[in-house]
């Protein structure tokens, strides 16, 4: 973790990943707060280096789909964009969690419409559409 930024900045690196089970074992803890700290450090290092957001590590408890869902939702809220799977039964849960919600898609379309050709504008709510918001909207609409 201490070298994440330097690794992310190296020209041959295209994406970062975190071995969560390895880290938890090394530190002797699977406390979600500890993993969130590591996840955020890696996410910040990746984005600062211009890399895409990392994907969450595998969820090792194959039959625990409720736990997988909760942990994957937590990762999505933290800004991660996907998750690797260790078993095919996990794929539907992961796909569902990372699929954009209908309200997110509606928001993204409204942002693009408000931005028009100039790339800036105002939503009906009064919120200003700026380049950062436009980028987020495009990323949502580009998701599979």
Automatic annotation (TrEMBL):
Keyword Signal assigned: no
Ranges of residues in domain HpcH/HpaI aldolase/citrate lyase: 2-88
Gene Ontology molecular functions: catalytic activity; magnesium ion binding
One protein family per Pfam: HpcH_HpaI
Cofactors: Mg(2+)
Domain of life from the UniProt record: Bacteria
BP GO terms, sorted: oxaloacetate metabolic process
Residues forming coiled coils: none
Keyword annotations of the record: Magnesium, Metal-binding
SUPFAM superfamilies: Phosphoenolpyruvate/pyruvate domain
Protein's UniProt keywords contain Metal-binding: yes
Name of protein: HpcH/HpaI aldolase/citrate lyase domain-containing protein
